[in-house]
Amino acid sequence: MRIFQLIPGTGHFYCGSCLRDGALGHALRRRGHEVRMVPLYLPFMLEEQEHEGSGPVYLGGINMYLQYKWARAARLPAWLRRMLDAPGLLRWVARRSNMTGAAELGDLTISTLRGRRGRQAGEVQRLIEAMRAEPRPDCFLLSNAMLCGLAEPLAAEFRCPILCTLQGEAPFLDSLPASHREEAWKIMRDNARGIDRFIAVSRYCGDLMIERMALPRERVQVVLNGIDLEDFKPGTARRGDEPRTIGYLARLCRDKGLATLVEAFILLRRRGGFADVRLHAAGVMLRGDEAFVEGLRESLRKAGLPDAAKFTPNIERPAKIEMLRSLDVFSTPATYGESFGLYVIEALACGVPVVQPRHGAFPELIETTGGGLLCEPDDPEALAEALATVLRDRGRARALGEAGRASVLEKFNVDRMAREVEEVCMMVVRPARAAAPSPLSV
Length: 442
Fold this sequence. Notes:
With 442 residues, the chain is of the alpha/beta class. The chain has 18 helices and twelve strands.
């Protein structure tokens, strides 16, 4: 198959959805498919796959924003639009600015969701023209449902199936200002009619989006995420006198539950028997996160633990794996319902038991892998107790980690994910090929 993946980039930081989409594209290529990964809005950040981010960016973030703000920006000279879409410039701007406040973010999202009916219709048309210059695809695979506004013009132009992954849409849309939230969901429901199949990254996510987008259940297939397991191996056995470490891996922000974890860590250290325990939090830190992280450092100082926690911002893949292998237990207690949580299976792939809140996809992951414990969400006391349960019993911790790793190797590897996505694609590609007129009959 020739598959065009349309994937929003982040410009300068790693996100779970991008890593999943990049790993999927490369695994589909290994299975013999011709996969074109198309960056939208900003260039890719794909962990040791930087060559994918060197090409042109479509629906470039600067042009999209200017056309939302100023209608005449759609008539800028082509050379200037191309310059504004340059990957280097987009990365530079992404690192240094947040271009929208809450109200503007709502308006910009509504316009973008409308696709060719929004203020940036010219950018959508330019995307179609660029795809027209390439060999005809057998299908398009959209990274998330917020791209469904592209389905109608793509289907009209290329007359091929459109598939869409479901991952992470609800938390973003629900964070919009109330005046825009319901309108955004209505547009999403309308746009969904142009999608031939949806691929949900978890049962939780599939059920949620079936309800929120009024999707027919038969058009939604669940394909659990997988990761490239190369280099993910258990760490060396810890000596009894070495300090124990709790780990966190995600964006260093409140929504991912870092404040809850720090509070739980302080409570744990006040208990007897845990004076050796350390905390290592790693992940993306954007400009807007710096004050939040400094506030956590101040809380640790006030608790008399200024040197007991380590924060490692913007970690790269080798250092990430090394950090995971050094842990005794892992927790990223997100405050909202995660569609999946790639960091959970990354920790389990290193044989590290996990403690996660009982919401979102986490119960599903813990049940499937047997690799950890659940606790009440947004409850530092409950989290501290669950962490203590794992830390005080090395035998149980080892058993949880081994069970989790075995399950990840079998059920959450990238090749299994690619094979199942391929099967879903073929469900719609084969009928489309059969229905297409033969060149000899035209």
